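So, could you explain the following?
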Amino acid sequence: MADHQHGKMDTTTQQKTFDGFIRMVTWGAAISIGVLIFMALVNS
């Protein structure tokens, strides 16, 4: 078993996953706000 070395782990996969998650949340929030504005404009 290899010894743990602090700061030596490759985190590129985790960073790409996190970036994708943040992008998805941002788009989801923007679409939700857009739908709410549209509903307010058409008096639903």
